[in-house]
Amino acid sequence: MHMMVSKPEQWVKPMAVAGANQYTFHLEATENPGALIKDIRENGMKVGLAIKPGTSVEYLAPWANQIDMALVMTVEPGFGGQKFMEDMMPKVHWLRTQFPSLDIEVDGGVGPDTVHKCAEPFGRSLSFMALEVRNFSKIWN
């Protein structure tokens, strides 16, 4: 679950009860990431940590060894139809070089013209949450 909420702490237990196996929250949305990471783990879920475009990737670094996945937003959260922000890809590269075993995902504006920019050198795991499914066959054909 990618939780784009202002108080991610309040949704951990309900998501665990609902059967979520991973809980991804935005680093900017909590004052105590360490406690939230611990709570997510105690509720039997993997931990994902997301950062918005304006957040420095180094802000995520202290938590990288405690999480299962880092999510780099490639659009501003909350508004559909935005253009992929290619200038976020250095964040992915930095995470890959600093934390080679960490799963890294990107979210936002990924489509047939941008998917290769995401997949080229960086991720073991890529999430294409905003991919236009109707154009999916154009990518691999």
Automatic annotation (TrEMBL):
UniProt cofactor(s): Mn(2+); Fe(2+); Zn(2+); Co(2+)
Keyword annotations: Carbohydrate metabolism, Cobalt, Iron, Isomerase, Manganese, Metal-binding, Zinc
A single BP term in Gene Ontology: pentose-phosphate shunt
Known catalytic reactions: D-ribulose 5-phosphate = D-xylulose 5-phosphate
Record function comment: Catalyzes the reversible epimerization of D-ribulose 5-phosphate to D-xylulose 5-phosphate.
Alphabetical list of Pfam families matching this protein: Ribul_P_3_epim
Family (UniProt): Belongs to the ribulose-phosphate 3-epimerase family.
Pathway of action: Carbohydrate degradation
E.C. number: 5.1.3.1
GO molecular function, one term: metal ion binding
Name of the protein this chain belongs to: ribulose-phosphate 3-epimerase
Lineage of producing organism: Eukaryota, Metazoa, Chordata, Craniata, Vertebrata
Complex and partners: Homodimer.
Transmembrane segments: none
PANTHER family recorded: RIBULOSE-5-PHOSPHATE-3-EPIMERASE
